[in-house]
Amino acid sequence: MSKVNSRDISPELARHSRRAERDHSEQRWLVSYSDFITLLFAFFVVMYAISAVNETKYARFHSAINSAFKENIRQGSSGVLVIEQDSVLKSLIDERNLQFIELQRRQQESIRAMLHQLGSVLAPLVKQGMVRVLQTGRGIVIDLNAKVLFQEGDAELQANARPTLDEVARVLNTNRLAVEVKGHTDNIPIRTALYPSNWELSTARASRVVRFFIDDGVASQRLTAAGDAENDPIVPNDSPEDRARNRRVTVTVLTPTLKPVEQGDYWGK
């Protein structure tokens, strides 16, 4: 059998062979690109699979967007759909404010229930004029006369004060609102080794009540203690009876301030 000499191959066949080899070499990049796209697709599938979606929030957002799209999408001059941004924001804000109204309603119900509970458990002392329970713009205020809690000029709780504070602590534990405890005195100066002034006495009394609440299970993060000395009287210090009324500890269950969302809030105005 005779060998085929490369010179015997026709020029046309040689050109075809070289072109086929060149085309095959130039198309190798498609294999790498295809592998990359496959890996990228797998990556996003895995990311989607491990993501945690809050279905409730998504449903609300989806509803608001759909509402805005149905009413506020218009056809642009170039044929592109244009979304009215202000209307979308308004839909989202309206949805948020519905939640605000519901939260406000539940808060008011909780406050009314707490007022009723405190009025019931403290009724005997309220009748004696030793305790006041009222609602103010800051929240629920419980005014405890110092005579119910302490000996004169002292900040150690009396034994008969514990049942009253136990009842108050039990009601405080029905929610998680912040509680401010503040001590008050009359305007007669005090100067002892423990309490050089009414500031120290009023603060020590407030702190002692806070410590009792913590021991009774009220979370310490909810509590603050302060002393006002004689600077916040409820009546003028004109008589022994009125000065006795001003010596007190005030427990205020602070009501959080709620306000609806406005469009300017979204724009940082």
Largest sheet: spatial strand order: 3-4-7-5-6
Shape: elongated
Oligomeric state of shown chains: single chain
Unreliable sequence segments: 71-83, 263-269
Structural description of this entry:
The protein has helices at about 10-25, 30-50, 55-70, 85-120, 125, 145-150, 160-170, 200-215, 240-245, 265, and strands spanning about 75, 80-85, 130-135, 140-145, 180-185, 225, 250-255. It is built from 10 helices and 7 strands. With about 270 residues, the protein is α+β, with helices and mostly antiparallel strands. It starts with 10 loop residues before the first helix and ends with a helix. The model is unreliable at about 70-85 and about 265-269 (pLDDT under 50). Strand 5, helix 8 (about 200-215) and strand 6 form a beta-alpha-beta unit. It is about 55% helix and about 15% strand.
